[in-house]
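User: Last request for today: this protein with adenosine-5'-diphosphate, please.
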Amino acid sequence: MTTTDTQTQKQTAAPTQWVYFFGDGKADGTGRMRDILGGKGAGIAEMTNAGIPVPPGYTITTGACRQFFEAGGRLLDSIVEEEERALQRLERFLGRRLGDPENPLLVSVRSGSPVSMPGMMDTVLNLGLNDQTVDGLARKSKNPRFAYDSYRRFIQMFSDVVLGVPRSIFEHELTLAKKRARSKDDTGLEAEQLKDLVERFKRIVRREIGADFPQDPREQLARSRDAVFRSWNGERAMHYRRLNGIPETLGTAVTVQAMVFGNLGPNSATGVGFTRDPATGEPRFYGEYLLNAQGEDVVAGIRTPLSIERMELELPEAYAQLREITSRLERHYRDVQDFEFTVEEGRLFMLQTRRGERTGQAALRIAVDMVEEGLLTKREAIERVEPDHLDQVLHPVLDPVERRKHEILAKGLPASPGAASGVIVFTSEEAVRRGHKERVILVRAETSPDDIAGMNSARGILTATGGMTSHAAVVARGMGKCCIVGCTALSIDERARVLKVGGRALKEGSFLSLDGSTGEVLLGDAPTSDSEVVRVLTGKLKPERAPLYQRFELLMKWCDEVRRLRVRANADVPSDARTARYLGAEGIGLCRTEHMFFAEDRIPHVVTMILNAQEARQAKLLIERIKGDLAEAARSEKPRLRKELAAAQGKGGEPIRAFETALKKLLPLQRSDFRGLFLAMEGCPVTIRTLDPPLHEFLPKREQIQRELAALRGARTNDARKKRLLATLTRVEELHEFNPMLGFRGCRLGILHPEITRMQARAIFEAAASVIRSGKRVMPEIMIPLVGDPKELALQRAEVEAVATEVMGRLKVEFPYTIGTMIEVPRAAILAGEIAEHADFFSFGTNDLTQLTFGYSRDDSGRFLPEYVRTGILPQDPFVSIDVKGVGTLVRSATLEGRRKKPGLKVGVCGEHGGDAASIALFEDAGLDYVSCSPFRVPLARLAAARSALKRT
Ligand code: ADP
Ligand code: MG
Ligand code: MG
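Assistant: Here's the final one, the structure of the complex with adenosine-5'-diphosphate:
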């Protein structure tokens, strides 16, 4: 929240100023007072002070808005009095009075909050008109048509905003009037016809609210002002704030401003524009205008507006002045401006200027161009490009013009940026089947690990439930694939293969388009274009022919010059590692070995390994024990023990052999995986995590085995397949856990089955040795997951070290390596000092650390977390952006403690938070060495690291 106004008050001890006047070349406020005056009010004050022609008026502060709500929806008398004085000043200044039947002052009542919320709140134009003043205006302007046009507009807007009479009723009446006049446009209506329309409008009002349209201009003003304040808490505005994380407490300012008229005739106009193209960033004047029109006609689509270039011919002087003023504004603010203007009989007035919103591509181009133009320093350019902008640059986008032709059916959460269009399918199998030859969009209630293949085949993913960290969201971001989740408006009938949304029933095979950057779901097949940067990085486009790519590279270079944090990527396979490297990754911060286990050629061995692990372990323990007993036994006891040993060896032989054979089969496969990874990341550190997930994740689902067994009902009991299925079923049931997340997983697996850790270590070291032999450099880092006690790490470390020594000796190659641990169990963070004694590095697994610190299961938090965030119990979803107070404190203290025990301990992060800009700021601050994130977020992380480094200086 911003408290600038109350601070100012404290400092100067003067009574709070609630109303700020502007006009005659000077304003009470300035452009820096956005918090108090709102963006619009601050921009108007700044322009007035700069001598730019702006109609005069006054702004009532956002503080007054807060007072308004505190007083139960009433403006305090003292503020009302202050406003009255400002109004009188305005009247004196212009020599016109509100409500004067001879020479009436007309004003607009405009909203404006500190954060731009385009179109979310209300505006009233032409206020001050009534049955008398309209005639005064007609006489004074000698233009009755204009006077009645203004009056009908006023009735329309006031009724909509203040009286709650739907706009559409008036629109309908206007359409009828145009029909009667045989005119296509509203400009074709004559004075008499407009006068008649006004009468009809007034009758509508009487019918709808049971009272006459208010004729007293002061009442009109007070009610409009209050309605604008109230629109801050309108449904639209609240929804927008929720979606964009804008604090409720900001409030809106109200600006009351003398009207200037773009509807006075063919020498008058109204328009909007940007100083540069907001879609591409190209330095060209960009905008639209309408002759003889007012206010929002340009954006309302009432008539088709003209491109601003035409204005040079039609209104040359005003155009020249507009160019001059807007480029002055751009230089003054040193940023692209989005402006609104009106031309009254050839005279230009500026009505608004603000920072122009832009696409990622435009943001990049504008920042780099402005450095070249000498408007910005490199540092400022880095501060101007938002991390999200970079993310957009790496993903396909919907064609900005074409997309307008597609109906927006629904809006979900923008889980993974990019754009996709294609035919919808409802199952992963179908996505795989059709994905070969068609563009498909996978539509699911939500996704699970079973859907990976389908997600991989799809262009985009759309789910009805789930949050920003749901399975679909996380996996799609990892794949760099467009994804929208939590789109509650969808109703999916998987059986019938129908999607119901926005009053339509779409069959499988219908076209949908997704905008993963906004969360919008569009009907039909909207064209997309690939990211230029990615096309260059994948060799499909030459860098010299890719201006966007060149700017991307330049900005990244500037970032790399200032950042301190290193950036690595989470990558499990060589292709991801290569992408990551193209995008600037300086190593791999997390390779999840289990992902290698899922491959088709491995899963049978993995299953055999799991099916036999437990029995093999028991058999081995038994054999060990008997052997021990045997060594110490009395002679008479020995024959019995020998017999026991033989029996144990006989019975245990099979599972032990099966277990070890499976490991042997997996060894070369893992070795070649690691070799590929090392080569792709040549010379950079590669952190490989030993097996982490609960074993049952690798086994088929219980229901599936039962289904297969049912199908085999006729078969003989000793049928090999049936036997296998039965054994698997038993094992699956044995492995069932009530809380798998807290169960037999992580290093607990390696401690009970050290053979698995040893196999993985051997694969890693043999791969390292072979890479070194071929004359290349490697930096393997073995990472032990889910450690909660120093002894766990000590034990696993001993296993890994023994293998390293063995491999070096056997292959006669020396290779560097380190052994570290994830810090993801709160106890590990608390015992960080003791754990550091056995660790060469720490890597915070912030996903699990967040789950376990809060006691929230990430996969189940969708039920309550959104509500927690909405009601402000939590400032944001802690799985998206790190929980500064809790988890952040653990990260800081564990880092300090770890380094106190072991100076120079390397510390990084490998959770999803490693790719989140706000979290990166905390990691920078905590002095971490690196962050690791999914490959497509690497550029974003480089930028965020640079921005956080700059903040510290
Ligand atoms: P929004 O925040 O929705 O853009 P504005 O307050 O900017 O609403 O008003 C919308 C439009 O109304 C402006 O772009 C401008 O064209 C017109 N307008 C507002 N105030 C005046 C005025 N005093 N004179 C002429 N036109 C005005
Ligand atoms: Mg508006
Ligand atoms: Mg505006």
